[in-house]
Amino acid sequence: MKSNYLCKTAMIVILGIILFAGNNLLHIGKVSNQCMEKDKKAIVVVSFGTTYAEARKNCIEAVEDRIREAFPEYDVFRAFTSKIVIKRIAERENIHIDDLETVLAKLRDEGYTEVIVQTTHLTPGEEYENKVLAAVEPFKAVFTKIAVGRPLLYFKGDNGKPNDFAIAVEALRLQMPSDLREEKAAVF
To answer: What is the pTM of this model?
Structure first.
């Protein structure tokens, strides 16, 4: 129950950033390619992944579904950054999930022209730098537009950028019981 609540809260904050701060997507590249089919748009939701089917459904799939609802003109795809998670799901559940490089190659081969890569990672650490941004780099000349959304907690409010930490705290505050007083505590 606690895990489901955290997943929902994280999903709300991530969607808030996607929907309300979309103008701050990190634009990666723009090259026109006349051979590609026009207006094929994709959003790739990339996460570390999880071997727990219920967590995939309640957290990752729920984010993907909300993105589908919010952006019906885009096809939504899933990618995981953890090769171990991908391997274990394939072995245990016979479900194949691609890594980001594979998804981007498939989108290229299928003629997509616009791709948004949105991570569900919380912070811009090694996974984000080495497995998301690095995976996108070779594809920046392939698509007419490719952009990478930031992790949940990226900007600190410096240099006119949004304060992602304050946005997350406010989203959590809104989830708190209204009768919470000094002598009470909320546990996540």
So the answer is: 0.76
